[in-house]
Amino acid sequence: MRHSVSFLCFRALALISSVAVPAVVFALMGYLFWRALPVLGPELLFGSTPPLDAVFGRAPVWDGLWPACVGTFWLVALTMALALFPGVGCGVYLAEFASPRQKRVLGAAVDVLAGMPSIVMGLFGFMLILLLRRTVLPEANTSLLLAACCLSLLVLPVLAASAREALSAVPPSLKLAAAASGFSHAQAVFHLFLPASARGVLGGVVLAVGRAAEDTAVILFTGVVANAGLPSGLFGKFEALSFDIYYISSQYQDQQELLRGFGAAAFLLIVSCLLLAAARALERSFRRTWQGRA
């Protein structure tokens, strides 16, 4: 009798939680889009600047999100250029080439890096600049390149874990077929297993892109500023959507500027949801192709 009551209580709690969590998420998203609806449009991105002039850099944008969008794009692109090969390579090594002891040690290191607070990465980059100023580069300063380097450390565990899981999910039948065909282990990994797990790896890449686009704490100490305009180069300052949301919400002067902050948050949320949906679609496609289930 006692076990039946406990089971019923647990089932009721699980049912309430399954309803409450989506309700809270949709309520927050609904409120965000309701507040952002009055400013959603071309003016949110370009302000009073003609869109073509803003896109081609012929005129600055002071009251729109276009510089932040461009800065976010280059930040994410540079981050992935720095992190993609090491992250996926680490996952491939852990899944296919590492010894049991190496798997324990490297896996623990990846887990520690994955649990590292993003603010610590930002402080690491800031302290690195201070160290360079006092030693070999007196003119060293925070920049787009430094922010991308710190963000690449943040997304490395995501890439490594996704590549490792995707390769581990390759069906044993494919491995037996590779061995029966005379492939060496390295040939099988790079010519069969990696192509077979490409969708799973790509899903992790999409999630890493979303993480890099959303994070604020890292770039807060490593080069992002308000009203920097379009990025001037790897060693220049830049704007980013996530920082614009933080800056506007804490420094807004009137109601219209606050609504622009809601619009920026809604725009970033839309981008994040699209990236998450793409990652889920790639994962489902991978499972259907190689594991025979949706």
Terminal CA distance: 39 Å
- Tell me, briefly, the overall form: globular
Classify the fold: give the CATH topology: MetI-like fold
Radius of gyration, Cα only, in angstroms?
23 Å
CATH superfamily (homologous) name: MetI-like
The tally of strands reads 0
User: How many discrete domains?
Assistant: 1
Described by strand count, sense and barrel closure, the largest sheet is:
none
**How many H/I helices?**
13
Q: Element order, helices and strands?
A: HHHHHHHHHHHHH
Uncertain runs with pLDDT below 50, 5 residues or more?
Answer: none
Helix content range of the residues, please?
A: over 70%
Strand fraction band? under 5%
Class of secondary structure makeup: mainly alpha
Mean pLDDT over the residues: 84
Specify the CATH architecture.
Orthogonal Bundle
Which CATH class applies here? Mainly Alpha
